[in-house]
Amino acid sequence: MSDEVFRAVARELGDGFPPENVLYPVNARLRASYPDGLTIADIIDVFLDDSAVGVRTALTSRLRQWDAESVETWVGSTTPQSPERRARIYDLLGLPVDAHAEMDARFPREGGPVVIAAQQPWDPWYTSERRREHDFYWRAYKRVLADKNWDEATIGKLDIATTEVVHRLADPTRPEPYQSKGLVVGYVQSGKTANFSGVVAKAIDAGYRLVIVLTGTIEILRSQTQRRLDMELVGRQNISAGVDDDYANDEDWRNGNFLEHEIDPNKTNEIPAIRRLTTSTFDYKSLLAGLSALHFETVDHSLPLNDPKNLYPSNIRIAVVKKNVSSLKKLVADLKKVPTELDQIPALIIDDEADQASVNTIDPKKMKTEQIERTAINGQIAEILGLLERAQYIGYTATPFANVFVDPEDSVNVFPSDFIVSLERPGPYMGGADFHDLDDLEDDDKTPANSNQKAYVRDLRAECDEDRSAEQLRALDSFVLTGAIKLFRESKGAKPYRHHTMLVHESVKQAEHDAVANDFKALWKSAGYSQAKSLSRLEKLWAEDFAVVSAARGSELANPSSFGDLEEFIGAAYDRISEGTSPVIVVNGAAEKDYKQDSLDFQERGVWKILVGGTKLSRGFTVEGLTITYYTRRTGQADTLMQMGRWFGFRPGYRDLVRLFIGRTVGGPAGADYDMYKAFEAIVRDEQEFRNELTRFSGVNEKGEPWVTPRDVPPMVFQQLPWLRPTARNKMFNADLVYRGMGGESFSFTMQPPRGDGSINARHFDAVTPLLKSLDETGSFNFVDKDDVSRSFTARYGIVPAHVVLEAVDQFEWANGWDFGPHREALSTAIESGLLEDFAVLLPYPKTREPIEIKGWHEKLPIVNRKRQEREYRTGFTGTAVRERDAIEHIAGSPKKNGGPLAGALHRKTRGALILVFANDPAPRQLKRAQAGPVDSRDFATLFSYALPHAAEPLGRIGFRVKQSGTGAIVDAN
Q1: What is the distance between the alpha carbons of residues 480 and 467, in angstroms, rounded to a whole number?
Q2: Cα-Cα end-to-end distance for the chain
Q3: pTM (2 d.p.)
Q4: Pairing of strands 274-276, 649-650
Q5: Residue 622 in contact with residue 385, Cβ under 8 Å?
Q6: Rounded to the nearest 5°, which phi and psi values hold at 743?
Q7: Could you say which of 186, 674, 757, 796 would form a disulfide bridge with 192 (CB–CB 3.0 to 4.6 Å)?
């Protein structure tokens, strides 16, 4: 096909328009050159032609938008991201059914954010037409992202995610006020600020005229957020129109890197200007005589501000306010004096780090009166919501548990009663899962190529001061060496690494920060980086660690072929780190005058430093260029611990250099030791399961009703470590989860109690012996590994009546805090209704491990290694037969899985499938695991996964029993 044809087809794929038959308008455009016209087959060929780059880019973008659309009438009854939606799109484009499969293969559905939402009391208002009519600030923000080298796909996904949020807010022109409250769940250090910046841009385009951004509780974070919004959204013209000159010495301001709007909003009536009520150097102050800054302009005084005639010409006010009682009180006091009627002002409140300080934590049992008492900051937020009837509240957090435990009946609280949006994990993001091996590799099989732990994690197990100094020196050596590698890469054409940092986090106490900082200063002086004596030590570290990992994980980057290539850059890295007063900067709540050191300002200049701190560096604040982390602090709350994971984030051009030095034996109460790496792994798994539950039950059921609403979410929160609570101690949930069934999808039941004396293990084995006796066949099953390669495994198998399986699992004991009841209810209901008659039970036999003799049992059985924390506080195991689940899901009827011919032959409409696994679980002091046997049943655990028949619950179902609510706060700060 010609370029003319390509251009004609691409023009019919315009941004923001619905899918329509593409053949007729294309032929109209090509009438002169192609008088006989193209056929629909020709159009499909163009769509699939790799040389038609413009067409493929445009079609990919439009399909992404159309797949996600949720308010336009053309979608009919189809749900976003569904196969039915894609088929609807193809039909509207005029593509025949026989082309759908090939189109799907070439343009697969990308997915999108997961949404849990209540039904809204209004018709859709944020339509594509409304978005096209008012999009000045969103278009400007998209240009900023493109200038930051965001690709089209990433910007497109942000467009979808932000639209998903904004259309769940109330129409700012709506005659009756309505407060929509929602929560956006991202990942730690994953770009949540980019999302809420996009939401703010679209919201002010849509008509919101007062924007209040609540940041964390420290000024360093507030200032960072203010600058980011000023630089990427407010823009130079709006900043220059004010009286403050807070960026006079800012390098990016001087270099012209702040957004320059295509049209100056201050010189036209068509575009609203933005007036800043805070600056990068000053939090909110009482306006006093300048109170007119909050007086909104109106064109027609006979109409309210929220009328479109007045709303769109009026200017925007934006305040970035620290969650500090004093600042919030000043804002509340000024709002009470605003000349404009408050119930006419469409306001947007963005609460960054919404689980910090915003939640009311007063125990309702301790309240003195029936009136809800509040913590100070929550009280101020509640008052703002009470004053601004048109205020929309959106909380942003990576750790949402405190927010979903808020009482939904407290009308002025911050419970996300209208929606919860769980953002996708960004592609290049390096998060918790990237530092752990969640697919349960055997330790002997781990290499830096297949194991995240081997690649990025270094254990801290010092038992004396000498060992501790050695571990600190290895971390410091790693910091210098990675700095040298970055400089080497710059010399080979890599983009300059403006920042290179190391984080040391051992305590929350300021006095201990001083001591740790002094330790690293002394170590820096004695390490000899400016002398030849350090080279042999650094060469050994490079050869044994960084050369190996970079070859496995950073092969596309420039890497030195020998240590000699690095030597000249080691001195340069040392000089960069040594510049200024000290290589170490203490970052905590103490006054800067208390330390003789350089200030920490990532905007003003490049930072190559060792940062020692605690809380100030553990929530919200982005540590730019973070490469080496030295972490040994313990905490008892999962959300607090996750927020300390500053090593999560985007690491362009140096992902392979990142190292986490983490305490494996951190002292705690009563002399107990805590493994912080295992603690992080546990909460990564808990978080992943929470997100999986949101994904499973998002959307609507066959009746078009939401499967779950935000008030149903708390029971989905599970904690694996008894000492590590999801958030502050909860007093009640909003509901009890009582039924959970997903046909054709397996679930692993690994949440077993601590081993104790092994008697629980013995009882569990006895419970499954009736199942073992039925395994009278042996066969081969298939699965697809993580590299999408089909592999096989051998298993004994047999068919067991469903009631026998139910009797067996009824004898299992479970960890405190986890309830098998909802699963049992689904299991027994399927049996009673005749939808589940029997199970195919599989016992996989590992290829590399011989079966072992079992005491008291007549035959040898396979015993595998699965992770269980050696200490009593760890409950359960990390998995059953992860790779083999394809087979049981295929047997159970899942249309998405292929377990091989035998699995297909075993499938019956009323048959479920179950995998048994026996995992080594010896006594704590018995270090060697069973290899040859005989082994006692006390010394291995019985694990299982099962899948109900797909026909029993083809769409999945989850059920709740609502508890009494309206009793106040649900979390206790004590």
Answers
A1: 20
A2: 70
A3: 0.74
A4: unpaired
A5: no
A6: -65, 135
A7: 186
